[in-house]
Amino acid sequence: MDNRLGTLILLAVLAGAGCQKDDTASARPVEGLLAGGEGTIFSSGPDAYTFPLPNLDEAGVNEHFLGDGAFGQQFVTAPAQQFGGVGPLFNQNSCESCHVRNGRGTIPRYEGDPNSGFLLRLSIPGQGPHGGPKPVPGFGGQLQTKAIFGTAPEGKISASEASMIVSFLDGSEAALNRVTYSITDAYTALPPDVLISGRNAPGVYGLGLLEAIPKASILALADEADTDGDGISGKPNWVWDVLKQAPELGRFGWKAGQPTAAQQSADAAHNDMGLTSFYFPDEHCEGQSNCAEGLQMGLDVDEATIGLFAFYFQTLAVPAPRKLDDSRVAEGRGLFEEAKCSACHVPRHTTGAHDIAALAYQTIYPYTDLLLHDMGEGLADGRPEFQADGREWRTPPLWGIGLAQAANPKATFLHDGRAKTLEEAILWHDGEAEASRTYFTRLSKVEREKLIAFLQAL
Ligand code: HEC
Ligand code: HEC
Ligand SMILES: [Ca+2]
Ligand SMILES: [Ca+2]
Ligand SMILES: [Ca+2]
């Protein structure tokens, strides 16, 4: 944040506005307005995802701004006095270059586009260490499209598009574009059975609050065998916790492949930027010649830096919904319930204890169950990740989604960013969400617009 003083003043004003104690019931905010509980911020501009939790104490605010610096830091080639160690293989050299203004990344617009927040996860069939994806010999678990001088990038991302038409009951139509990703200019041959999963960078605000939802509350929503027969069978992803050396509930990433904010940070530093840490002490050279040369002694980033990355996004505030009391939005909210969107995008949660006191015991409205769902063949990537099979994805939170294109005008939706609009995102829903999608396609145009208006208000 360049203009720290300005931000603090703004926060003071907003905190004053948001925390007024009112004694009349009629003055109570409409349900869900405080999307992040006391961690809600009233901002709807391009910077809406960039504010610290308003209920953070002074020491926390200071640490948050140090974390902001780390998140925006462009790491350089070792040896360097500071912030060295990027690569040898990497995708981008700062967190922020993918998570634009803490929102979504931009998908590649042409082959080899260097300015994208999109990456390809790779594996081969079977299970790797601790039940995770099985690394591709010579490539590991991710395609790094950049490299430091003297090392070859692993390859380029290339895309081919096919379009299909969806019809609504009222006779109108929408076109959906499906992009198939492949790898060109690979530095060495890829095995023929390589599994490729395209992932766009999601927003990173409000994640501390998601981390603070008690595990028991999430597991209580799971219904793997669909015993209540509603066609929806949320399933937890049990992933490997590197610090505990034990399985833990996955929460972060499009398939909930990471259990904690700290491990998510260390994994991003390692895979996306080529930064080693106490979590992942080895460069992921995957046998490339030259790859281990020119690196700095010891680890690229220390434990404190991993902690700062994590603290930063753990303590990012959630923007408040807008116009929730507008009648169209309110009706859209009713349709969201009617269409059973809320069976997966569970509106309300209460957080439990957390090391960061500001995150604890908050009533929040993230619209997710953090569980995996079979989303059908159209969204399938065919690449398993721990318990998540090739058709399963974690329900993404919908809070703040209406501001996605304010933060990044090129923002798109779904795991690989294939949906240019919220309507397209809904139309891709299938599998367990088939009934919801069908409900949506049978609505009139006016009703569909109301449902979208509700999403835009979040
Ligand atoms: C090359 C682009 C890129 C860079 C650089 C990058 N990320 Fe990400 N980030 C992604 C993608 C893509 C995902 C989704 C990964 C998945 O689903 O497996 C992601 C996921 C995340 C998530 C999980 C969000 C959620 O909703 O579950 C967090 C948190 C995160 N990144 C933080 C960071 C931090 C911290 C850094 C810097 C140390 C960083 N990222 C660097 C692309 C990037
Ligand atoms: C069976 C569970 C389920 C139901 C029901 C469901 N969703 Fe989803 N939703 C998901 C999952 C999982 C994804 C992520 C899919 C992907 O990225 O491939 C998703 C993605 C989305 C996205 C894009 C989010 C983003 O961050 O890009 C929107 C918007 C959305 N859903 C809205 C809705 C609406 C509106 C309904 C009701 C009409 C609905 N969903 C019903 C599970 C569900
Ligand atoms: Ca390195
Ligand atoms: Ca790799
Ligand atoms: Ca069920």
Question: How would you explain this protein's 3D organization?
Answer:
With 458 residues, this protein is α+β, with helices and mostly antiparallel strands. The protein has one domain. 24% of the residues lie in helices and 15% in strands. The chain has helices at 4-18, 58-72, 207-211, 215-221, 261-273, 303-314, 327-338, 404-407, 422-427, 434-441, 445-457, and strands spanning 40-41, 89-90, 118-127, 133-134, 146-147, 156-167, 173-184, 195-200, 238-241, 246-249, 318-319, 349-350, 363-364, 372-374, 392-394. The strands form 7 sheets. The chain has a 3-stranded antiparallel β-sheet with strand order 4-3-8, with no helix packed on it. It has a two-stranded parallel ribbon with strand order 1-11. Strands 2-5 form a two-stranded antiparallel ribbon. A hairpin with a 5-residue loop joins strand 3 and strand 4 (133-134). The longest helix has 15 residues, at 4-18. The chain is globular, with a radius of gyration of 22 Å. The protein starts with a helix and ends with a helix. One calcium ion binds at residues 85, 87, 274-276, 283, 295, 300.
